[in-house]
Each structure stands twice: as C-alpha cells, then as structure tokens.
TrEMBL record:
<feature type="transmembrane region" description="Helical">
    <location>
        <begin position="168"/>
        <end position="186"/>
    </location>
</feature>
<dbReference type="InterPro" id="IPR036259">
    <property type="entry name" value="MFS_trans_sf"/>
</dbReference>
<keyword id="KW-1003">Cell membrane</keyword>
<feature type="transmembrane region" description="Helical">
    <location>
        <begin position="100"/>
        <end position="122"/>
    </location>
</feature>
<feature type="transmembrane region" description="Helical">
    <location>
        <begin position="143"/>
        <end position="162"/>
    </location>
</feature>
<keyword id="KW-0812">Transmembrane</keyword>
<dbReference type="GO" id="GO:0005886">
    <property type="term" value="C:plasma membrane"/>
</dbReference>
<protein>
    <recommendedName>
        <fullName>MFS transporter</fullName>
    </recommendedName>
</protein>
<keyword id="KW-0472">Membrane</keyword>
<dbReference type="GO" id="GO:0022857">
    <property type="term" value="F:transmembrane transporter activity"/>
</dbReference>
<feature type="transmembrane region" description="Helical">
    <location>
        <begin position="41"/>
        <end position="64"/>
    </location>
</feature>
<dbReference type="Pfam" id="PF07690">
    <property type="entry name" value="MFS_1"/>
</dbReference>
<keyword id="KW-1133">Transmembrane helix</keyword>
<dbReference type="InterPro" id="IPR011701">
    <property type="entry name" value="MFS"/>
</dbReference>
<feature type="transmembrane region" description="Helical">
    <location>
        <begin position="305"/>
        <end position="327"/>
    </location>
</feature>
<feature type="transmembrane region" description="Helical">
    <location>
        <begin position="367"/>
        <end position="389"/>
    </location>
</feature>
<feature type="transmembrane region" description="Helical">
    <location>
        <begin position="247"/>
        <end position="268"/>
    </location>
</feature>
C-alpha cells in the first residue's frame, strides 16, 4: 500500500496537483469521446474507450493496494504525471491518422497510471489528521477535484474548437506534466511511517461484521446504480454530434454540465454533518435524477438534456462521496488504501460495463427510449438501496453501545469512529462528532 506518513501536509499543494491532473484527465476524456465518435461513427466503440479506461484504472489501483506495496505517494504521483504526458504527446502526433487504435492504447495506459495514484491522493490527505478533521476536509477535497474537471472539460472544448485537436492534445500533455511536477514539493514519507502488515488477525467483533456487511451491501447497490447511470457517458457524444449537429465544443459543454452538478455534492456532505437522515440524503438526489430523466425522455430538447446532466452529476457525486466518507473514517490506516481501491474497482467496473452496453444500445435505439429504460431501472434499484440501507441501519439499535467496541488489530479506538458513522448517516440524533482518538 502507499504510505501515508505521520506528518501533516497542507491542502494547497495536494489540491493543486490533484486539480491539474483531474483537469487534464477530464480534457483527455472529452477529446477521446469526440474523436472516437468522429473517427468511427459508432457509439459502441466510443463507449468502449470509457470501458477500457475505467477497467485499466480500477484494476491497477486494486492490484497495487492488494499487494500492499510500500510505495511513496509522492513518487507515484510524479511518475504518473510524466508518463501520462509522454503518452498523450505521442497520441497528439498520431491524431492526423484518424486511427481508433491510437485512441485506445493511450486511453488504457493513462487509465493504468492514474489508477496507481488513486489511493495516493487520500493517503496524502490523511497525513497527520484524525477522523474528525478528515471528514471535514473530504468534502472540499472532492469538490475541488470536480471543479477542476469542470474547467478541464469546458476549456478543452473551446481550445480544440479554436486551435484544433492536435494543439489541444499537446496542451493536455503539458498540464499532466505540470501536475506531476507539483508533487515534487510534497514531503517525503519516512520509512517508519509506513504501517507494517499485521502478523496476526484478530477475530472480527460483532460491530466489525455489521460494518463490513453494510459496506458490501452499499457497494453492490452502488454498482447497480452505476450500471444504469452509464448512458450519460455513452449517449452524450451522440446527442452532441447528431442531435444538435455539434462538435467537440458541444460534447465538452454537456459533460461540463455534468461536472457542474457534481460540484453541488458539498450540499449533501454539509447536510450529513448536521445529522440529516440517510433516506433524505439519498432520496432527494435520486428523485431529482428520475424527474430529469423522465423530462428528457418526453421533451427531447437541449434544456431538458442540460437539466439531466446537472441532476445526474449531483446525484452520482453525492452518493459516492457519502460512501467514500464512510470508508475513509471507519477503518484503520493500514486498511484504508485497500478499501479505497475496492471502492474504485466496484464503481469503475460497473460504469465500464455500462458504458459499453449502453453504447451498443445507442447504435440501435433512440436516446429517449434508453432514457425511459434507465429511468425505470434506476427507480427499482433506488428502492432497494433505501430499503436495504434502512434495514442495516436499524441493527445499530440492537448492537449495544458501539462506543465500547475496540478494534485491537491496528490499535484503533473505534468509539469516535462509530459515532462519526452514526452522524454521517443520520442515526445519531443529530449529535456531532467531537473527538477522535487513535492509539499506537
């Protein structure tokens, strides 16, 4: 796993590095989606690019953390930025060939190197921070990333429209290189700061089993939701190029609206911190998503499409951030990278499979028909999510005092952490977390 270190690092440098790489990644995604559809005229092959990227990203992240390789987060971020820059620069030079293969290969390589650094962003955030501070900063940390995606998506559309594909692609490579170079300013991790693998395993306590069951359940339902939400990626290039007779700038605009909705996820995290129940936090964005999908399937115009993108961006980011906050705040440092990688794997594989399947469907079915199918399917999955979440949360009242449960393996006192989970998911009567104690 990637060592987090015990010395706190200010947020400015990680935010700058992550923002630059996130903006470059979003710009690169806009380029491959437009170029893929322009080169092949196939929504399936365009969606296949997203499938290849997300699978490469998730598998690389999961493989690294399962191996628990003691790599420095600083080192892998620098290396990934420079490797991505080199690969995209080669792709830019080969763009005039209009060859699908030279879109697919760089997409896979970039997916792999960015997957390797995914846990590193969170290990840098966790350095020297307790659970209380970690949760407070996770929302802004994710919001800044989404803002960077927003800027990258909008900016590359305009640049490519004015300068062309090749100069815009070279600019993306430069941003990757700068983002990786910023990580050179991060403090080095001390070897003693990297947690040693546990030699013995403590039998799971009842409260630990409750947590593991709840996380697995939410992961499964979230994967199903991602599978249904994948048409956002698969059909947007079709809408932009064929529906409104647009180009790369229009593709960027629609994805920009999706990112703009994602910025609003901070509303959900603030509500969670104030003790709002999970059924409200999940029901509100899902209702918004379902309403916008229904409107888009009936009206089939740009206004409804814009509202669809914003609402889906908000819903996906809100639910994902809630679950990510749960993982980051509930497990020991030695296990967090592995849980984060599992989260990325489940999320990415479902989205990757959905992108390919819905891309294939978009070659044969009109977009309004796809919107109706996904609306009904998402409603069913949302109902299962809320019912299951309620059943699992109800068990807490029968589990005794979770504050008395300690997780001896790894030396973490779980009283504060369990209170955090109750606060985050609205099971603690609105009381806020005030302490977080870690023992070595």
């Amino acid at each position: 796993m990637i060592g987090a270190g015990s010395r706190a690092i200010g947020l400015a440098r990680p935010l700058l590095a992550r923002g630059l790489i996130a903006a470059a990644t979003a710009a690169f995604a806009t380029m491959w989606r437009y170029a893929g559809f322009a080169f092949t005229n196939s929504a399936f092959l365009t969606g296949l690019l997203d499938t290849a990227y997300t699978l490469a990203f998730a598998i690389a992240s999961y493989w690294l953390t399962i191996r628990r390789a003691p790599l420095s987060g600083r080192t892998v971020i620098v290396a990934s930025g420079l490797i991505s820059a080199a690969v995209i620069m080669v792709m830019a030079l080969l763009t005039p060939l209009h060859a699908y293969l030279w879109l697919l290969l760089p997409t896979v390589v970039v997916g792999v190197v960015l997957g390797v650094i995914y846990p590193a962003w969170y290990s840098q955030l966790r350095r020297g921070r307790d659970s209380n501070e970690l949760y407070r900063q996770l929302g802004p940390y994710e919001a800044v990333r989404v803002v960077a995606i927003l800027i990258g998506t909008a900016g590359i559309g305009l640049v490519a429209h004015v300068l062309g594909l090749e100069p815009a692609t070279l600019m993306i490579a430069a941003v990757f290189a700068v983002g990786g170079s910023v990580a050179l300013t991060f403090p080095r991790s001390d070897p003693d700061d990297i947690p040693a693998p546990q030699q013995t395993e403590t039998p799971p306590r009842p409260a630990d089993r409750e947590i593991d069951h709840r996380v697995r359940l939410l992961f499964g339902l979230l994967a199903a939701l991602q599978l249904m939400l994948a048409p956002i990626v698969a059909v947007t290039p079709v809408l932009a190029v064929e529906g409104i007779d647009g180009g790369v700038a229009h593709v960027g605009l629609l994805f920009d609206l999706y990112s703009a909705g994602g910025v609003l996820q901070f509303v959900t995290t603030r509500a969670a911190a104030h003790g709002i129940g999970v059924r409200v936090l999940v029901s509100a964005p899902l209702a918004l998503m379902l309403g916008s999908a229904t409107a888009a399937s009936v009206l089939d115009d740009m206004v409804s499409a814009a509202f669809l993108m914003v609402s889906f961006g908000f819903g996906v980011a809100s639910i994902g951030t809630l679950i990510n906050a749960e993982i980051q705040s509930s497990v020991h440092e030695s296990e967090r990278d592995q849980h984060v990688a599992t989260f990325a794997l489940i999320l990415s594989v479902a989205f990757a499979v959905g992108s390919g399947l819905w891309g294939l469907a978009a070659d044969f079915l009109p977009v309004p028909t796809i919107a109706i199918i996904t609306t009904v399917s998402t409603a069913v999955i949302a109902a299962l999510l809320l019912v299951s979440w309620r059943r699992v949360s109800g068990r807490w009242s029968k589990s005794g005092d979770p504050g008395r449960c300690t997780r001896e393996a790894g030396g973490i006192v779980s009283a504060a952490t369990y209170r955090l989970k109750r606060t985050v998911f609205g099971w603690h009567g609105g009381r806020k977390l005030t302490t977080a104690t870690f023992v070595g």
